[in-house]
Amino acid sequence: MTKVRSLLVLGAMLAAALLVAACGSDSSSSDSGGTIIRGTTDQPISYDPAGAYDLPSYDGIYSMYQNLLTVEPGGNKAVPEAADSCDFTDKDNKVFECTLKSGLKFSDGSDLTAEDVVFSFERNVEIADPNGASSLLANMKSIEAKGDDTVVFNLKEPDATWPLLLTTASFAIVPSDVYPANKLQPSDQVVGSGRYTLADYQPGQQTVMEKNDSYQGADPAKNDRVIIQYFDKASALKLAVQNGDVDIAYRSLSPTDIDSLDGADGLSVISGNGTEIRYLVFNTKLQPGDNDAQKLAIRQAVAQTIDRQSIADNVYNGTVQPLYSMIPQGVEFANQGFSDKYGEAPDVNAAKQTLADAGVDTPVPLEVWWTPSHYGAASGDEYAEIKRQLDESGLFDVTLKSTEWNQYSTAAFTDKYPTYQLGWFPDYPDADDYTSPFYLPDSFLNIHYDNAEMNKLIGQEKSSDDPQVRQQAFDRIGEIGAEDAPTIPIWQADQVAAVRDGVHGVEETFDPSFIFRFWLISKDQ
Amino acid sequence: MKESSGSSGLRTYVLTRLGLALPTVLILLTVVFLLMRVAPGDPITAALGARLPAKELEKRKKEAGYDKPILQQYGEYLGQVVTLDLGESVTDNRSVTSILAENGTATLELTLAAFTVTLLVGIPLGLLAGRYRDGPWDVGGRLYGIVIYAFPVFFLGFLFQLLASEVGWPTSGRASPIVEFDLNKVTHFYLIDTLIQGDFNAFWDVLQHLFLPALVLGLTISGVLIRLIRVNLLQTMRGDYVEAARARGVSERRVVVNHAFRNAMVPVVTVAGLQFAILLGGAVLTEETFNWPGIGSELVRYLNQRDYVAVQGIVTVFAIAVVAVSLLIDLINAFIDPRVRYR
Hints:
The complex is a heterodimer of chains A (525) and B (343). With 525 residues, chain A is of the alpha+beta class. Chain A contains 16 helices and 19 strands. In chain A, the strands form 4 sheets. In chain A, strands 1, 8, 9, 10, 11, 12, 13, 14, 15, 16 and 17 form an 11-stranded mixed β-sheet that branches. Chain A has a 4-stranded antiparallel β-sheet with strand order 4-5-7-6, with helices on one face. Chain A has a two-stranded antiparallel sheet with strand order 2-3. In chain A, helix 7 packs antiparallel against helix 10 (348-357) and helix 14 (452-463) packs antiparallel against helix 15. Chain B is mainly α. The longest helix of chain B is centred in the middle third of the chain and has 38 residues, at 200-237. Chain B is globular and about 85 Å long. Chains A and B meet through helix 1, strand 8, strand 10, helix 5 and helix 12 of A and helix 2, helix 3, helix 5, helix 7 and helix 8 of B.
């Protein structure tokens, strides 16, 4: 009897608690003024710039720190951020000097000085974190402070891309008296001089940033707080933006999700210029063909046969654009090398002629690899479409093979796959970042491609800051890239977000720099 | 004399079981270590394989110590386990201890809630099915048991999500983003933390978020429990002592609840305990479906990134937890049923 009574009392207490709770207002809606909630499936690796080389980490770093230089919304050139001015001071483009703005402060109240800048770069190289981007500083011979407000970079080789390299979040400025010199600062203990301070970081769950009232710089935040909420699955993210649990769903909704959200009540789909690309790679040693001429003809014939527009329309529902150069549109010095040489539309007859001229027997057996676990859910459909196009031409007999990313990322670059799928997003929005990683003999692709003229042109564009010289070099690089076709560009992605009504400014931040500028976003109260 | 012999038998049994637990854990740790090394890929190649040249990748792998002899790595791993220092994840620099504290409690909260649903649904339906054999309750209960067990949890979850989103009920996460931020996470059990904070609005928000995943996971497991209770009840109902109780004029309700049910629950405790242990790791599909930041979904993420340290740490704790629960069940059984320890 006593037991029964106890249970009844317990039950009554629980019911009362629930009743009180149910009668209360929904706390999720009690405090939304000035708070922007962005849902994403991408998770950051580190909020210490020295440990970051990934977009999700960059999202937080760009918001909480400052770089010497940055890219303005809609721009594609390096402009001062923490620096007042920066320039090469020698004719060889090997000495780069920056003068800092005065009055800059970190969120802990300390001054941002040239010593902090030197410390930030030196610790990046010293730590050489496996997940970091210290390898991008390979050309830095030394860095020194001249007084409190001037920093001098001495480079090993002339490098016109250096200013844009400095806009990369990995090279943001950290305080020398807070951050350790030889190991990473924990991600939940950020001290920066950016527009936001870190209020909370729960890995896998959320990052919360609050407006930094002591921020000294241009464009202070238009909102008071930003919450980045992490989702495992795009389907859960889609439901969350539909239900209004998040204001913005950005990266990585599938094309089908985007299609179904377009026109849904209470939200709109916003897209902008993106510079993430997908391309097909040929290992020139393993690909079919009895000699170099036949191998070249096979690559050219594939380039002539693939219908990029069909892939963009039918597989990606128009959320990507056909790509006819390794340098995507929107990046300065972009060209159309492939469409200039082969035309935009596929030309099977021309491809047939190309193969016949080189004495290649058709159909050419082509083993093409792709991965289902790295480049989005639509990769399978994309490669089924490519196979269909090539097979239907009668010129190729494609065998599709796939494997998980962990195996793929090792095998593809160690002479295991003759032809394979790959993607790229920029370290910095310079055309060099879309050419030297692919076309130089020591490329990470390891495809045994080596063209002396190409190597010379890349050296030229890298060392000169004369726009005319660079334009000519990139134009010729585009021609040779299309002629040799060791890689075939397929598409470039738009940046796409689903945004709740009343949220403004997302479209302003979509540009080739891939910087997600939370500070431009506002919400109707 | 008899009592002394009984406690000695129990002591021997406990010591034997404890002695077996250690090699079991060691075998599990070794298997996990070897599987992670045999599987292709490593954290650095997984993260940067399509950005950096092979030479640079090798350099970074060497700096991270992945080229050390496997025996040395194994020794260091066991040393970490013994000193309870499970290290830091390679891919996002989190201490494994904090992963277990934050994500492990999320899983435990979900599992406890789901298990409550399982018991609330499974026990009454199992009792009714056994009590009214071949009647509508029995047929309905068995049918429900089979159907619910056959439903893939992610499919059931997805259906519930669609229904819930129609009425504006939360479909993902542990709490609304702002509630989650405002919550002072003392125990990392959000229901408890909201009560400690005295914030009933937040409590309601967390309860709403917990309801759907707990319901889906709990219902899926309840099918097994229904069938188990039914079968055990039918067997105990055939016992002599049940007949004797009936002959003494005890009401059928009391026969079922007070006599048959208690005895029928002995094997059920064993299976339910094991189900609970399995739930700890097996909640992963539910976690993925409802974006529940539990340890299972974190494990999958780290596995995909080939994060040796995180995976080894999490699985180590899983293994120890499952072995501990199994041990506890054995001990409870031995305590309840003397026949167990004399076998």
